[in-house]
Write a structure and sequence with these properties.
This protein is α/β, with parallel strands linked by helices and about 350 residues long. It folds into two domains: about 120 residues, no CATH class; about 210 residues, Rossmann fold, CATH 3.40.50.410. The chain has 13 helices and nine strands. The strands form two sheets. A six-stranded mixed β-sheet has the order 5-4-3-6-7-8, with helices on both faces. A three-stranded antiparallel β-sheet has the order 1-2-9. Helix 10 links the parallel strand 7 and strand 8. Helix 4 packs antiparallel against helix 12 and helix 7 runs parallel beside helix 9. The radius of gyration is 40 Å and the shape is rod-shaped. The relative contact order is 0.17. About 5% of the residues have low confidence. Pfam families: VWA (PF00092). Keywords: Cell membrane, Membrane, Transmembrane, Transmembrane helix. This is von Willebrand factor type A.
């Protein structure tokens, strides 16, 4: 930090960093200047002047020029006293405005939510009505969705004729995106679409596990976890044709655990030559209704991306923002300058120099 008597404190670059606590005080500076000008105008006719003898005028031209220079300096010097008075008062007003530098530190805290992605990897997901394939489009959009989340725990369940938990709830989004990148329609050999089993796997990953009464710390942790929102996002292109659990029963179970379900039907609702390529919206709509979520249809990559964006907007965890301010005041520097100028004014006023300059 530079010393108070440095002219750096009056530089424009330094003033750009300041924030004034009382900026209205600066408006008094022009008022002080106006009062000094009015006083000078009213008192100039009644001012007494003492004629000074500067010695015999020399006949040499150089001596005459020197006398004129001394008279010019004395003429300018008469403004020194009001100038010191104005500068001192202006510096005190700047100190009253309280220049300061404020450094803000923002701290965002979010508990996040729990999200389980249930991805259909059956053979019908290799259909190309959504380019390049249904599964590839869903995989790419799901990766973008994961990258856009913050402080959320996200897990992954894949299903075809059977359902497997591929990744537990985690905040390691890079690991999760690697799992999504490896998805293909050959990961599960059993044919069919086990939507009910997939929901059951997701619920099992998200359901609460009550802590023992003796462990109070764990009980508090589990109580905090129970307050987190829980969401299942299920992507499929077909009806439930396999598995041991009915999807309606699984959706009712999710409702009991306060888990919301969003379902996305991927693909055109038209049958093709391939078996089980028809998209059945009925069961997906019922699941979303029971799970207090929403049903979406994605007929192309753009619509699929829009669906995930809508879900991302609907499921946002509250964020608490704390702002810490580090305030450094610099009014003392300008107060020192003001006192210095006023002392200079007092010195000029109460010594012979003041009389000489005024005359």
């Amino acid at each position: 930090m530079k010393p108070w008597y440095s002219l750096h404190w009056f530089s424009p670059s330094q003033w750009q960093q300041f924030k004034l606590a009382h900026p209205l005080a600066l408006w008094l500076i022009p008022a002080v200047l106006l009062l000094i000008a009015i006083r000078y105008y009213l008192s100039r006719k009644s001012r007494q002047r003492l004629k000074m003898s500067l010695g015999q005028i020399s006949a040499e031209p150089g001596s005459w020029m020197g006398r004129q220079s001394v008279q010019s300096l004395l003429s300018l010097g008469r403004y020194l006293l009001p100038l010191c008075m104005f500068l001192g008062t202006a510096c005190l007003l700047i100190a009253l405005a309280r220049p300061q530098i404020i450094r803000e530190l923002r701290e965002e805290q979010s508990e996040g939510i729990d999200i389980m992605l249930a991805m259909d990897v059956s053979v019908s997901m290799s259909e190309s009505d959504i380019l390049p394939t249904r599964l590839a489009a869903a995989r790419r959009v799901a990766q973008a969705f994961v990258r856009g989340r913050r402080n959320d725990r996200i897990g992954l369940v894949i299903f075809a004729g059977e359902a497997f938990s591929l990744c537990p709830l985690t905040t390691d989004y890079n690991l999760l995106n690697q799992y999504l990148n490896d998805l293909n329609d050959g990961m599960i050999r059993t044919s069919g679409t086990a939507i009910g089993d997939a929901l059951a796997r997701c619920i099992n990953r998200m359901r609460d596990r009550p802590a023992a009464s003796s462990d109070t710390t764990q009980a508090k942790t589990e109580q905090w976890k129970s307050e987190r929102s829980k969401v299942i996002i299920l992507l499929s292109d077909g009806d439930n044709t396999a598995g041991n659990l009915d999807p309606i029963t699984a959706a009712s179970l999710a409702k009991a655990f306060n888990i919301k379900i969003y379902t996305i039907a991927v693909g055109q609702p038209v049958a093709s030559a391939s078996e089980a390529s028809t998209v059945d919206e009925g069961i997906l709509k019922k699941i979303a209704t029971i799970g207090k979520g929403s049903f979406f249809r994605a007929v192309d990559s753009g619509r699929l991306k829009t669906v995930f964006a809508q879900i991302s907007q609907l499921e946002k965890a509250p964020v608490r923002v704390r702002v810490y301010e580090d305030i450094q005041d610099y009014y003392r520097i300008y107060m020192y300058w003001g006192i210095t100028f006023l002392l200079g004014t007092l010195l000029l006023k109460n010594t012979i120099f003041g009389n000489v300059l005024e005359d």
